Amino acid sequence: MASTLTHNSSLPVSALAWANERGGSSLPRLALGSYVEDYSNQLQVIGLSSSLPLSEPDVPPTGVDGGDFNILAQAHHGYPPTKVAWEPISKRRNELIASTSDVLKLWEFNEFNQSNQSNFNGNIHNPINTQPSSLNLVAQLTPKTPGTAAPLTSFSWNHSTPSRIVTSSIDTTCTVWDLETRTPITQLIAHDREVYDVSWLPRSSDIFVSVGADGSLRAFDLRSLEHSTILYETSAIDKRRAQPNTQSNIPNKNDNSPITSTSTTNAPLLRLSFNPYDSNYLATFRADSGDVHVLDMRSPGAPVTNIRAHTRGVSGIAWKPDGGVLATGGDDGAVHLWDVKRGEKVGDKTGSNGMSRQSSSVSNKPSLLKDSVLSYRGASPVHSLAWGSVPSVVGKRSSWEDWIAVGGQSQTIDCNGNIPQSCAVCIWVITENNETALN
Question: Which of 50, 132, 213, 417 could form a disulfide with 193 if both were Cys (CB 3.0 to 4.6 A apart)?
Fold first, then answer.
């Protein structure tokens, strides 16, 4: 069974999303968003050219540029996408993809005939007697006049009610959209400063959670928008200015200049990710911090587990589909997989997936997790992470495996550590060139 698949992108990859597979015969596909500091960014859909690399590890790559995947469709995106996601599974013939940047964009992906997919010849032009895949922009949604709206930082597609998407913006607001009418259901001021990420509570059509530059994590319910719940706030950071003629913050008694005031601000929270199996738990991280915090929504105020994850800032977090493992990526070029259950302390109560929950007889001090179950280290920062379930064929039996896609620039990956069989994963490393190695 193959353990690594690669795609050699011509541009740095900043956003990733696995397609929601429609059945065991579907081959893996991903939507990719690029990041360049101008208006020339691309949105691409890539797909595995055949199922052979999954079942036959000795088969050489069959994609273009020496990779395992081919570009099925691509489109001009303009500004860099801050997030991409596929529509939750539906009966729609052509799949929808959403992305955010200056506005919320909806794209329609029309894939060529699935029955001929195994004959895909590795080019954007697809096999004879099939129609080429296409990626078409079908809507641009903004609550204001186009060109005047503040940039969007993220969004979340509701799996219980797929007609709903909630977006977050640097203008402090979150907007809930009805995709059937292409109109906003509501827009609310969610934070005191920029909102950086938002996510629906798994299996809920009404509750969503957001994080922002004010350092807070807040929960909202569409059925009662008069109130919100602050689940967690980061500690304040001193922003006291030094005196003009001294190296310290202690006033100089011989200095007649006015004494500067002390101002504090909470450390911003950048991203959040719910455990898909047990929605009581979610992970988040602060700006310029190598730590990740796991919180229990039933016990707001403090993390239940702190993960000492990276030597530089965390850039992405993603839970394994069964909720047992949390993946983190960082500016140090590392990807770590964490068994969060290892953060348990003696006397803790456990949730439905075995994660720790503090009892009254145990200290409220969070558990500290420093040892990952598996680590991959690269030479350049990791930009994005995404888990996906991929169908594979073993003999005459079909099964599903959990794969993780890692996006960034060129990567040289070294693997170390042991991972239990129950947590076995395959790593798919997406690189900017073909100088990839797995040792």
Answer: 213
